[in-house]
Amino acid sequence: MTIEEFVDLVGDELGLEVTPADIGRHFDELPGWDSMHLLGLLTTLESASGRQLSLPHLLEATNLEQLYVASVA
């Protein structure tokens, strides 16, 4: 998954308007972000990747970039 595909996935699944420039911003800085978005995104990432992800590890992420790196690694 490319970063652009990741950003599209975030927008499509969560209804948030984010750009590649936003992925390094802390979750608290993203307009409309709340903790439920994180749980929904983790489930979506696991499904999209086709593999089991370490959810406890991903829950430590503070921004979308960290989630992207951890989910494609």
How would you describe what is shown here?
The protein is mostly helical. It has a single domain (3-72), classed as Non-ribosomal Peptide Synthetase Peptidyl Carrier Protein, Chain A (Orthogonal Bundle). 55% of the residues lie in helices and 0% in strands. The chain is built from four helices and no strands. The mean pLDDT is 89.
User: How many domains?
Assistant: 1
Can you tell me the CATH topology?
Answer: Non-ribosomal Peptide Synthetase Peptidyl Carrier Protein, Chain A
Low-confidence stretches: none
What is the top-level CATH class? Answer: Mainly Alpha
Secondary-structure element pattern, one letter each: HHHH
Number of helices: 4
Tally the beta strands.
0
**Radius of gyration based on Cα positions:** 11 Å
Strand content: under 5%
* Biggest sheet overview: none
How would you state the average pLDDT, rounded? 89
Helix content range of the residues, please?
Answer: 40-55%
How far apart lie the N and C ends? 10 Å
Structural class: mainly alpha
CATH architecture: Orthogonal Bundle
The rough form would be described as globular
